[in-house]
Amino acid sequence: MPKPLINRKPKETRPSQEAAFDLLRPLVPLTLALLPEPEFTTRQFVVYLRATDPGEDAYTQAVSLWKDNLSLGRQVVHGQVVPRLLREEAKATWAGFVYGDPTEEDGLSVPARWLKPGYSYE
After folding, report:
1. 104 with 43: CB under 8 angstroms?
2. Residue 10 falls inside a structural domain
3. pLDDT digits (tens, 9 = 90+) for 33-68
4. Residue ranges of the alpha helices (H) in 4-81?
5. Looking at the domain assignment, is residue 109 inside a domain?
């Protein structure tokens, strides 16, 4: 009986979130400028991102990194990549979760509220 290979590194099968992050990063300032209010939600950010041709192309490419499971790709982009972009690139402030608003439920992430840089509730 052959001995098992214990030191074998697992093959990475998940797409890199970094690739999705890099695709969407240049579009963050433009998308924030399109948002009409200082407070916005993750879903609203994605809607405004996809409202431009470059934004739609980048979003489609980012989601398509998970070609075997596009639903998972959308979940990762909405729930992890976009919030990280808003925190790190846009310097937006997380303002809490959205409760009881069915228009914000997209089935992809927990609805969250954000404030544009330079705004606060104080």
Report:
1. yes
2. no
3. 999 999 999 999 999 999 999 999 999 999 999 988
4. 17-24, 28-34, 42-50, 53-64, 70-76
5. yes
